[in-house]
Amino acid sequence: MIMWYICGLVILGIGASANENQFCNENQESAYPKPLCYNAACMTAIEEHIEHEFHAAFKYLYMGALFGQYVVERPGMTKFFLESASEERGHAIQMMDYLNMRGIMYAKNYTFGNEMLWKLSDQQIAAAELKTLTIASALKEALEMELAVTKKIHEVVKSCADDYHGADVFTNPILEEQHTGVRKLQGAIKTMDELLRGHSGEGLSFAEYIFDQKMFKGEL
C-alpha cells in the first residue's frame, strides 16, 4: 500500500548563520546602506510562501504514489507527478537558500497531514476506490492547485515591490516555471478530453492508457 507516513513528515527549516539584524541595524557603524538591506515585508512573505511549495510537493508525491499502485498502474502519471513534486520542493529550497543569502534567520517547522489529500477523513484508500481514480480528475485538481500557488506567488512579488532582488528572484525563474507548468496542465487536460470524447466503458480505460503512455514517453 501507499507509504502513508509521507503525510506526517515534518520539514525542518534551516537557520541562517547570520543574525537578521547584524547588517541592517542603522544604529551600528558597520550597517549596510539601506538599499542593500532586505525588506521585512518581502522576507516575511517569502517565509510564509515556502509552506505552500512544500504542501504542493507532498500532494504531488501522494498523487504519484496513488497512480503507481499495481491496481492503477499508470507509470506516465506517476512519472509526471513525482517530477512535479521535485520541482515544487526545489522551489521551496531555492527560497530557503535566498533567505539565507539575505541574512534572515529561518527556523520554521511544517507538519503536513491529511488535509492535503483527496480523502480528508480516512487514513487509507481502498483498492476498489483506487480503481475509480481518473487521470482527468487528477489533472484538474493539479491545475487548481497550480493556479492557487501561482496566485500566491504574485502576492509575494507585490510584497517585494520595494525589494527589487526579492521580486526578481520570484519573477524569474519561479513565476516563469509556474506559468509553464500551468500551460502544460491545460494542454494535458485538453488532450485527455479529446481522447475521451465519444468513448464509454472499456474505451475510457483504453483512452487513459494511450494518454498515460504519451506522458511516460514525454510526448505531452
From TrEMBL:
Fe cation binds at E53, E88, H91, E146, Q178. The keyword Thylakoid does not apply. PROSITE patterns: FERRITIN_LIKE. One of its GO terms (molecular function) is ferric iron binding. Its EC number is 1.16.3.1. Residues 36-196 form the Ferritin-like diiron domain. Residues 1-18 form the signal peptide. Pfam families: Ferritin (PF00210). InterPro entries: Ferritin, Ferritin-like, Ferritin-like_diiron, Ferritin-like_SF, Ferritin_DPS_dom. Keywords: Iron, Iron storage, Metal-binding, Oxidoreductase, Signal. It catalyses: 4 Fe(2+) + O2 + 4 H(+) = 4 Fe(3+) + 2 H2O. The keyword Metal-binding applies. One of its GO terms (biological process) is intracellular iron ion homeostasis. Belongs to the ferritin family. This is Ferritin. It comes from Eriocheir sinensis (Chinese mitten crab).
